[in-house]
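Sample log: Reverse transcriptase domain-containing protein.
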Amino acid sequence: MLDAAINSINACPDNYETFKNHVWKSATASIPRSGRKQYIPCLTEQSKTLYSEYKQAYENDPFAEDTIEIGESLLSSIGSEKRDRWQELITGIDLTHNSKKAWKTIKKLNSESNTNTSIPETTPNKVAHQLLLNGKPNNKPRGYKKKLKEDTNKIMNESSTQFPPFSIEEVDAGIKTIKLGKAAGIDGITPEMVHHLGPRAREWITRLFNKCVITKKVPKVWKKTKDVALLKPGKDPKSPKSYRPISLLCVLYKLYERLIMTRISPIVDDQLSCDQAGFRPGRSCCGQVLNLTQFIEDGYENQLKTGAVFVDLTAAYDTVNHKVLLFKVAKMIKKHHNNQSPGISA
């Protein structure tokens, strides 16, 4: 249905809104929607038969011996099924093979059934104002921003290397990495919708991504986020600083970023310090702790003292200067291409 609807739509950022509407229309028509008016947990086929008999007997005489006997049999059958399901649930908790599933089950078991929804003691405007203060740069010399922009554009314009167009295989591989069950962005397209896109829709997305690279322009809705402020554990709910903002990006925009990241990560990763472990595959906090412990033990063996400084930056992610970060990444990519030399083999 969607593949036929987008045949005549040109793949460009300006037509993304039309594409989104067709996705929603197809999803509404294709995804079944139903609800159970009555649901009794642990009702097996045998229990269903007993339940039907009990309803009939109850209508005839609620206090008859047969009605009471059938009711007791029904409760016994449901109770037996509950015990079997509980044993199956406990047996299935395996931290060795699937720790994520196990911890998810444990979290459900520990969660309180009657959680009181507390009213936030601060307003969204106060939290937003605090985020603006966190991202406000320090005083820079006059003309700093202009020079930084000129230097970044100069590096990008000097590069003779063309960005190869994305292939449908890259898009398919990227879609497979999208996790299901995550929240949608402001366009309302969920990960499940993207996973079930047909071949023509995936080709349309591929052409859209390539058009974004050529024109250096993305759909306007991709620049908007749905922000949710979560209270940090143990923090004062009255203070705007106590809230951690979570930005929900559009799923297709995250896919576009991931494809670009896959292209540039091998280039950038080779130029990063070997001591840096944050957001790098194959590295973790546990590895850094192990390295520090080993370094201290080596110092003991050589009669040396080891000093360590632990720094916790306030609002570290909110204070990142993205323009400087872009400039550094551009320099890394340029350096990589400048160091390449052509080779001739016979």
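Observation: The CA atoms of residues 24 and 229 lie 27 Å apart.
Observation: The longest strand covers residues 226-231.
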